[in-house]
Amino acid sequence: MGKKNIESALMERPFNDLTTSEKATVLKARFDKEASMPGAQRIKTREAIGEEYGLSGSSVGRLLKLNDLIDPLKDMVDRGALYAEVAVQLAFLPENEQQIVYKVAKETGTKVTANMAIQLRSHTSMLTDGFVRRYLRKEPIKKKYYKVPGRIVEKYFQGMDPNMVDSIVEQALEAWFGKEASDV
Fold first, then answer.
1. pLDDT tens digits, residue range 109-120?
2. CB-based contacts of 6: which residues, under 8 Å, 6+ apart?
3. Backbone torsions φ then ψ of 38, nearest 5 degrees
4. Does residue 165 or residue 100 have the better pLDDT?
5. 41 compared with 126, residue with greater pLDDT
6. Helices (H) and strands (E) in the chain — how many of each?
7. Which residue of 60, 74, 104, 164 has the fewest CB atoms within a 10 Å radius of its CB?
8. Contact, 87 vs 77, CB < 8 A?
9. Sign of CA dihedral 83, 85, 86, 91
């Protein structure tokens, strides 16, 4: 099926039933049609086209940019494996660099984050396999801290030295998890 036939087939389906990349294709076809009209007839802007589809002008712009993605990255967007906001950042990379990002992300099982994509984009035209691997390292899990509710502090630890409180909590947790392990 030729490009024109694909676009026509997509335009016949309800817009909301299309995948993200299909929406991008439809909007590009619509935008290109407007852009090819003589100046006086070309009154459609991103905002006006967006209104036709229930989108903001900036959403239209982002979807249009997704057309610059390589097919494997478009597929990841459609499957939900890559957020559209992240994909837009990657769409600014040349095709060969997008290929590297896709290959490394797939090999390492890394979900590309917005921060990663922004860092990669800041080095456009300089990306190598090693460079991409460095930026796609999985981000460390942030440590979580547990705050003891005030009522428990008042009931059990009122007026105690903080080091003593830490020791008691640690002993209590060791005893609890020791009991859990023996119950298994």
1. 899 999 999 999
2. 25
3. -60, 155
4. 100
5. 126
6. 11, 0
7. 164
8. yes
9. positive
Domain locations along the chain: 3-67, 69-135, 150-183
* pLDDT range class, residue 151, cuts 50, 70, 90: confident
Return the structure tokens found at 10.
């997509």
Rounded CA separation 137/108 (Å):
8
Q: Which long-range contacts (CB under 8 A, 24 or more apart) does 140-146 make?
A: none
* Whether the predicted pLDDT of 108 surpasses 80: yes
Report the first-to-last Cα separation within the chain, whole angstroms: 60
Give residue 80's region: left, alpha or beta (phi > 0; psi -120 to 50): left
Extract the tokens encoding 148: 């003891």
Residues 6+ apart with CB under 8 A from 178: none
Q: Which one-letter amino acid corresponds to residue 147?
A: K
With a cut of 50, say whether residue 2 has pLDDT above it. no
Longest CA–CA span in the chain (Å) reads: 81
Is the predicted pLDDT of residue 157 greater than 70, yes or no? yes
Assess contact for 74 and 66: CB atoms under 8 A.
Answer: yes
Amino acid at 63: L
